[in-house]
């Protein structure tokens, strides 16, 4: 960990706890700052805040009092989930108080370089693949961010010989004024989180922050098939490394004659890759590019890609039961993710779908229903999905109360050779706290069949 005096004797407010807030507060305290933590959850129900209090850190819980901003804070470290239209954040910005996220702190103290991954879809799979490949190649990677340990905790332990592989959301990237990854990856851009950002333009601008501080010594791996991504690339000072799953490129990562190619070099046969789905091919190509730029040999890349079958809840193969293949894609919380999942299979599919109603319709799914022989719906969007299935001509349409009941019904409706796919196309919050909880219930129900 780098020894910095940037925050010594500075008054800093950590707004919102969870894991990142706790880590930020403890780190700033260690760095000599005068830290105040403000969290909305009452102290009596807040073990994280109680723990910080025991460390001698000032804690204010149960509300976000706007008058707190009059105490002369020089910086606010914001939980990424708190939107910028929150009165506390708006008040801070009016007063000229800088607002950052915990990732910025991590980058300031880290001795290790970062490989940072963002995008609308594919972040977690790409991050996991890069970590696994670097690990197989003995490159001493550490994993951080949304799918690992909090970034500032990892950064404190990281040494010069490590590489921190980090998945970053648009929420995190909005608070990173100096964050500079050695390798940045932008997987793709689609409409997402517009309730947080307000407009697509603001969302895209947030994602572009991943490369804003890169220099000509750094690398920016980008999806060559997306105009918005390439527009961001044109404004980057980094060395641009494109990837494409649909055409040959003059440089970067692509497919040619069933080979994965990087800068003209044959890496491995596409047919030897275990992970299903054409959308995952883009994730694989970006991971291969990051691995090669990090000096990993082809044997390590082959070892991982020939055995890796997916991240939990992301088109994850669960089991085969009496010839039926069960896949958990609970992370498919939007239509595009479900379209990608459906495109990954050429066998008959029984689709389990439904969840939170955000006001959208599902007609976009119609072209993807070619192999869907039956659909089982649940949640607030059940009726909308049933209407789309009817339009498509799907004959077997059933509704159940929840995912747990959908699994045995899907088994009854299926035949050997069928794929039974949980890919909800919706968020889980109408019935489940997280998509992980929803996926775990699916997995348990599959195991109960055996």
Automatic annotation (TrEMBL):
Q: Does the keyword Cytoplasm apply?
A: yes
Q: What's the catalysed reaction?
A: UDP-N-acetyl-alpha-D-muramoyl-L-alanine + D-glutamate + ATP = UDP-N-acetyl-alpha-D-muramoyl-L-alanyl-D-glutamate + ADP + phosphate + H(+)
InterPro entries reported for this sequence = Mur-like_cat_sf, Mur_ligase_C, Mur_ligase_C_dom_sf, Mur_ligase_cen, MurD
Q: Which GO terms describe its molecular function?
A: ATP binding; UDP-N-acetylmuramoylalanine-D-glutamate ligase activity
- Sorted UniProt keywords: ATP-binding, Cell cycle, Cell division, Cell shape, Cell wall biogenesis/degradation, Cytoplasm, Ligase, Nucleotide-binding, Peptidoglycan synthesis
EC number, UniProt record:
6.3.2.9
GO BP term, pick one: cell division
Q: Enzyme group, top EC level?
A: ligase
Q: Where in the cell is it found?
A: Cytoplasm
Taking every annotated instance into account, which residue ranges of this chain make up the domain Mur ligase central?
Answer: 117-291
Which residues make up the binding site for ATP?
Answer: 119-125
Cellular component aspect of the GO annotation: cytoplasm
Which Pfam family would be a valid example here?
MurD-like_N
Q: Where is the Mur ligase C-terminal domain?
A: 313-426
Keyword field contains Lipid metabolism: no
Matches recorded under HAMAP family: MurD
Stated role: Cell wall formation. Catalyzes the addition of glutamate to the nucleotide precursor UDP-N-acetylmuramoyl-L-alanine (UMA).
- Family that this chain belongs to: Belongs to the MurCDEF family.
Question: Per its UniProt record, what PANTHER family does this chain match?
Answer: UDP-N-ACETYLMURAMOYLALANINE--D-GLUTAMATE LIGASE
Q: What is this protein called?
A: UDP-N-acetylmuramoylalanine--D-glutamate ligase
- UniProt organism field: Niallia endozanthoxylica
Give the gene name. Answer: murD
């Amino acid at each position: 960990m780098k020894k910095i005096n940037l925050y010594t004797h500075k008054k800093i407010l950590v707004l919102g706890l969870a894991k990142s807030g706790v880590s930020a507060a403890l780190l700033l305290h260690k760095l000599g700052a005068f830290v105040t933590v403000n969290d909305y959850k009452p102290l009596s129900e807040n073990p994280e805040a109680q723990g910080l209090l025991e460390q001698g850190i000032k804690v204010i819980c149960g509300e976000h009092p706007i008058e707190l901003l009059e105490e002369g804070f020089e910086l606010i470290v914001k939980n990424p989930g708190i939107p910028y239209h929150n009165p506390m954040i708006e008040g801070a910005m009016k007063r000229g108080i800088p607002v950052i996220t915990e990732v910025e702190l991590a980058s300031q103290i880290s001795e290790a370089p970062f490989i940072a991954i963002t995008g609308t879809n594919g972040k977690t799979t790409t991050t996991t693949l890069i970590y696994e490949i670097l690990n197989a190649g003995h490159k001493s990677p550490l994993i951080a961010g949304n799918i690992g340990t909090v970034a500032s905790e990892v950064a404190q332990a990281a040494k010069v010989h490590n590489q921190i592989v980090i998945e970053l959301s648009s929420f995190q990237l909005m608070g990173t004024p100096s964050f500079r990854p050695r390798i940045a990856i932008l997987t793709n851009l689609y409409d997402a989180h517009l309730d947080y950002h307000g407009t697509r333009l603001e969302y895209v601008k947030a994602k572009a922050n991943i490369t804003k501080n890169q220099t000509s010594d750094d690398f920016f791996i980008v999806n060559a098939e997306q105009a918005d991504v390439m527009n961001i690339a044109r404004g980057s000072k980094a060395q641009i490394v494109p990837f494409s799953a649909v055409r040959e490129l003059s440089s970067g990562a692509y497919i040619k004659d069933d080979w994965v190619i990087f800068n003209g070099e044959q890496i491995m046969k596409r047919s030897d890759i275990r992970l299903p789905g054409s959308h995952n091919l883009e994730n694989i190509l970006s991971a291969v590019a990051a691995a090669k730029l990090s000096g990993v040999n082809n044997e390590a890349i082959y070892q991982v890609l020939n055995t890796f079958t997916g991240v939990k809840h992301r088109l994850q193969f669960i089991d085969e039961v009496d010839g039926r293949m069960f896949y958990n894609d609970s992370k498919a919380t939007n239509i595009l993710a479900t379209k990608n999942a459906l495109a990954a299979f050429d066998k008959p599919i029984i689709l389990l779908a439904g969840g939170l109603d955000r006001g959208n319709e599902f007609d976009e799914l119609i072209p993807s229903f070619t192999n869907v022989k039956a659909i089982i719906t649940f949640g607030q969007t059940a009726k909308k999905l049933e209407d789309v299935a009817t339009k498509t001509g799907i004959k077997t349409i059933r509704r159940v109360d929840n995912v747990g009941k959908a699994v045995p019904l899907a088994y009854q409706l299926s035949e050997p050779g069928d794929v039974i796919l949980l890919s909800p196309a919706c968020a889980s919050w109408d019935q489940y706290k997280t998509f992980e909880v929803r996926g775990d219930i699916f997995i348990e129900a599959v195991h109960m069949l055996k």
